[in-house]
Specification:
alpha+beta; Ubiquitin-like (UB roll); 6 domains; 16-stranded antiparallel β-barrel; three-stranded mixed β-sheet
Length: 749
């Protein structure tokens, strides 16, 4: 027994010694490399890929890791690594390189471009079968998103003598898979018509000849599921679920898309509770508590409570509680009621360490930084930062403004702002046509002169009876003072003998400044000088004839603007109010002009923006009748369906304008009409307006409110912005001149 144990010990020692010697063999330094079999890839590159180096201690584990790393590069089909006499021997067999990719069977240029964009990612790269198979799957998914659900794709590999290959993709697109019918089953509560308007997918109808929404697309269907879930949860159905989506193929190689919905019970809001926080006085939140009481007893809506919490966070940020964040929890109770619990989480104090600006190849960096409300060293305030980004977008000189925040540590972060500059020069032209006349306009703009954000604008407008020219210079941040300076030189010649019984020529210059007086409140002050020569017609009445002559005017205008829009360019939410008054200083005419405008926007959904705009313009003389050339009319853009200047008070056959003019414009964007194009906007509108009252008796038409409705289209085309409108007058006077169609076109350089 003892002898047997001694034998075991001896054998064990031999194994230990062998293992030690083996390890010792590899536990040596690398002195040399011997690379074999490589033709295209250099020795140095192979060594670099292996991540081995001279002087390294070698082990079997390191050799295995190097082997994996070389395979991972996709450059090699076979790899062998060994270690002999302090030398690493690496034998490789290189994968061929994809020299060229040919696409057959796809005729559409736009689709070809998408395919080439995908295939270019592997062209000139090593040929690896699994990578090619992955790309084939991506290509099929791409084609399915364009409706080619039955696409067949064959891949051919042509081997060239220089260890390269050519790939041939042969496509058989097959029939376009259209959605023949969309159904909603289960406990759906709402009608199919309502639900179809919620989702993006559409039934294939003959008039939808461009939109891709009629094609079956899994990504779009997933988006539809989210939209349906949001729709139900914002209308009280807290537990709503889309149980399944099914696409059933029909005999015509089309699909029937079926959404199985379980709406569940309807829930209502009950109570709200605010968790106290030492850093905020709950009395400050009484307003929000009162607002929530308006929700009590009403249908549960995730959107409503999210908006309320966002408003609370906006309030805390505005009042410098910058390190508090309001969140909410939902407590489901009996009888389908839900309590909302709002609490305040303390955030780590974060300060802006650095702001980096990228992409401004033309624009001076100062122009960008002067638009930022938040600065380096400030506590990070999301409200102020979002407003800063909105300011940059409102400059009108950037196509895109992107940003990213990077935390350097717990208390400091860096903000990277990347701008994409758009062409700053613009050549524009416009035209309008009506029942009795037309107009044409054009000009040149430079929106970022010398990269300083200075705007130059020169334009000329010709109508049947007038010529107007204007040149303006705007410096939005004069000498880094946060004040804008604007100078305008303009000249006009109007022949209104037929229309209003007079003609006039006018030349003038104005200079003004604008600055922010309070948060979101701006003040504009302008001084202007004008010289006017007025000539009246022989058939004008005696009061108008007395006004013939030359006039000099020195005027002071002040304007107060209150801007709460989310962004100045294409706003989606908020409001804007403006009041201005023009006073005579040294003037041959003592007229007082008042103007008030108001705009409001509300985002009903991501695609539907409601807007309302009110306009009021008045002029009254302080000593005599208002000069006929200064009477007010409705701007053409505020009353579509009527020719500009051809409504309101008349003196005989002549339109003489009025002392008062007002308008109300209501509009709503319309999503997805015929075209699926983010650069194309459709809007439905209702315009109401009137011009009334003059200083003397005439054949007035003072009480008739004009109205029209129609559709407008704005297309941000490759050649520039194009706008079209078609309006139908709803109420007019027999003295009015109407027009239905109006268009404008421009281009940029």
């Amino acid at each position: 027994m003892i002898g047997k144990n001694n034998s075991y010990k001896k054998n064990f020692l031999i194994i230990i010694v062998y293992f030690f010697l083996t390890k010792l063999t590899y536990a040596q330094n690398i002195k040399n490399f011997n690379i074999q079999g490589n033709e295209r890839v250099s020795d140095e590159t192979v060594i670099m890929f292996s991540e081995l180096d001279v002087g390294d201690f070698i082990s079997q584990e390191k050799l295995n890791q190097a082997l994996k790393k070389l395979y991972y590069t996709d450059y090699f089909k076979e790899v062998e690594i060994s270690y002999e006499n302090e030398t690493i021997i690496i034998k490789v067999q290189e994968n061929p390189i994809i020299q060229n990719i040919t696409i057959n069977g796809v005729d559409k240029n736009s689709l070809n471009e998408k395919i080439e964009e995908l295939t270019s990612k592997i062209e000139k790269y090593p040929f690896v079968e699994n990578k090619v198979n992955d790309q084939v799957a991506l290509l099929k998914n791409l084609l399915k998103s364009y409706g080619y659900y039955f696409v067949e794709l064959e891949t051919y590999v042509d081997i060239n003598p220089n260890n390269t290959v050519n790939l041939r993709y042969n496509f058989n697109l097959g029939e376009i898979a259209k959605i023949q019918k969309i159904k909603f089953i289960g406990e759906k509560v709402f009608s199919d018509t309502i639900l179809r308007n919620i989702i993006l997918s559409e039934e294939a109808k003959f008039w939808k000849f461009i939109t891709r929404n009629k094609f079956l697309d899994i990504n779009r269907i997933n988006a539809d599921v989210k939209r349906l879930n949001d729709f139900y949860k914002n209308r009280g159905f807290y537990n709503a679920k889309i149980k399944s989506t099914t696409a059933v193929i029909t005999d015509e190689n089309q699909f029937e898309l079926i959404f199985n919905i379980n709406s569940g019970n309807k829930f209502t809001f009950d109570n709200v509770q605010f968790y106290e926080n030492k850093n905020i006085n709950l009395n400050d939140l009484k307003l929000f508590e009162e607002n929530f009481k308006n929700f009590q007893g009403k249908n549960y809506s995730k959107r409503k409570i999210t908006k309320l919490v966002d408003e609370i966070n906006a309030y805390t940020l505005k009042n410098e509680f910058v390190f508090l964040n309001a969140t909410f929890e939902e407590l489901v109770k009996k009888n389908n009621k839900i309590d909302i619990i709002i609490k305040f989480d303390e955030l780590d104090k974060v300060f802006v360490d650095r702001i980096n600006i990228f992409g401004n190849f033309i624009t001076d960096e100062k122009v960008i930084r002067n638009s930022l409300i938040i600065d380096e060293g400030d506590a990070y305030n999301e409200i102020l930062f979002n407003k800063s980004i909105a300011n940059l977008k409102s400059l009108g000189i950037f196509k895109n403004v992107n940003y990213a925040t990077n935390n350097n540590d717990k208390s400091n972060q860096t903000i990277d702002i990347t701008v994409e500059e758009k062409p700053t020069g613009e050549i524009f032209a416009g035209a309008g046509t009506g029942t009795t006349g037309s107009n044409i306009s054009g000009g040149i703009k430079e929106n970022n002169y010398l990269g300083l954000g200075i705007k130059l604008d020169t334009n000329l407008t010709l109508t049947d009876d007038s010529i107007r020219g204007k040149f303006s210079v705007l410096n939005p941040n004069y000498k880094n003072s946060d004040k804008s300076i604007k100078t305008v030189i303009e000249s006009s010649s109007d022949d209104f003998f037929t229309l209003s019984g007079y003609k006039t020529s006018k030349t003038g210059i104005s200079i003004g400044t604008e600055f922010e007086q309070m948060n979101d409140m701006f003040v504009n002050i302008e001084i202007s000088n004008y010289y006017e020569d007025l000539e009246t017609s022989s058939n004008a009445n005696s009061i108008v004839k007395k006004q013939e002559g030359s006039y000099f005017e020195n005027l002071l205008t002040y304007e107060i603007k209150y801007n709460k829009l989310d962004q100045n360019y294409q706003p989606t939410d908020g409001f804007f109010n403006s009041f201005s008054q023009t006073l005579p200083v040294v003037s041959d005419d003592k007229s007082l002009v008042n103007k008030f405008t108001s705009s409001a926007y509300h985002s009903l959904t991501d695609n539907i923006i409601l807007s309302a705009q009110f306009y009021l313009n008045t002029i009254n003389s302080l000593d005599d009748n208002v000069r006929i050339s200064k009477r007010v009319f409705i701007p053409s853009r505020r009353l579509r369906g009527f020719e500009s200047g051809k409504i309101g008070p008349k003196d005989g056959s002549q339109y003489i304008g009025g002392n008062y003019a007002s308008s109300l414009n209501l509009s709503s964007t319309v999503p997805n009409i015929l075209f699926e194009n983010e650069d194309l906007d459709f809007s439905l509108f209702l315009d109401l307006a009137n011009v009334w009252e003059v200083d003397y008796n005439s054949s007035l038409d003072s009480n008739k409110i004009r109205s029209s409705t129609g559709i407008s289209v704005n297309w941000y085309s490759p050649i520039g912005p194009l706008s079209f409108s078609y309006a139908i007058p709803l109420s007019d006077s027999n003295t009015d001149v109407t027009e239905n169609f109006r268009f404008q076109i421009g281009t940029s350089f």
